[in-house]
Design a protein that fits this description.
alpha/beta; 8 strands; transferase; Glycosyltransf_2; transferase activity
Length: 302
């Protein structure tokens, strides 16, 4: 019998990022996978700029391939992805973040990996690149410490959702992403998938591309959000994470200087001044995450 390509739904959550959603839509619509066998679901999560209008132009140009979905009630990537899951027609769901790009063989090779290996949950490699005129030390830091997806899958049993493929039956069995979590919903979902007995796999041959965060405030904002998500995980899923004390000095100490030096110099040629500045960025990142954790526990997030 001839091979029947499985149907695929590509789900892209987006909030206030017209440039990013253009980049991603252009990329995922230029695929070698048969056009009739995949759909693209762009889920706007309450944008207040022209993001929704940008998606609308793609819906007009590709009416049979692109759909605009709206999640206005719950703010957060988990809720946006859940909206996509609920509306998806595919037997395989592929998740990618707005501002990421892929090669034209991305879907074809992802489906080949899933089908030939009978995999249900697969994470892909993520390569962080520095955009033109955005070559900052923050971008360098982001490149060095970006997305260790293989480590996440092998040691923590999850893949980041910006580079994830999952069969629809997995959601039928374990449920959706926990939309109460401001961040960390990918880990909580992946842990449920693992506990349910599904194998989890990393496919290094499939690379997805993410621009480096070049702004220090943007990087710190991200980790403040991660800190909030960690606190929410402790509240809603206490068995999955250790609950640290606010008095634990590890929350406020800088990284171990020798280990940090080895980590950064193993992957990049850096001057001493650059290493010191990167160390400062790492310390600020840790303090920002701790501040987010404290905010969620004791501040307005409570």
């Amino acid at each position: 019998m001839p091979f029947e390509p499985p149907s695929v739904s590509v789900i892209i959550p987006v909030y206030n990022d017209p440039r990013g959603i253009r980049m991603t839509l252009d990329s995922v619509l230029d695929q070698t996978y048969p056009e009739t066998d995949y759909e693209v679901l762009a889920v706007d999560n309450g944008s207040t700029d022209e993001t929704r209008d940008v998606i609308g132009t793609y819906c007009e140009e590709y009416p049979d391939r692109v759909r605009l979905l709206v999640e206005d009630e719950i703010q957060g990537p988990a809720a946006a992805r859940n909206k996509g899951v609920a509306e998806a027609n595919g037997t395989i769901l592929g998740f990618i973040d707005a501002d990421m790009t892929v090669e034209e063989t991305w879907l074809e090779h992802a489906v080949q990996s899933m089908e030939s290996n009978d995999w249900s949950y697969m994470g892909c490699n993520v390569e962080i690149y520095v955009e033109e005129d955005k070559d900052t030390l923050t971008a360098t830091y982001n490149q060095i410490f970006g997305f260790p997806i293989q480590k996440y899958i092998e040691e923590q049993h999850f893949s980041g959702t910006g580079c994830l493929f999952v069969r629809s039956e997995v959601f039928d069995e374990v449920g959706n992403f926990d939309d109460r979590l401001f961040s960390g919903e990918d880990q909580e979902f992946g842990n449920r998938v693992y506990d349910a007995g599904f194998d989890q796999h990393y496919q290094p041959a499939i690379t997805m591309y993410h621009p480096a965060r070049s702004s220090l405030p943007a990087l710190l904002k991200k980790h403040f959000r991660h800190g909030r998500g960690r606190a929410q995980m402790q509240r809603y899923h206490p068995s999955r994470v250790q609950k640290p004390s606010v008095l634990n000095p590890r929350n406020y100490l800088p990284p171990h200087p020798i280990r940090f030096y080895k980590n950064v110099t193993d992957v990049a040629s850096l001057s001493w001044s650059d290493v010191i500045l990167l160390f400062f960025i790492a310390y600020m990142k840790r303090l920002s995450a701790t501040a987010g954790w404290a905010y969620e526990h004791f501040g307005e997030g409570e």
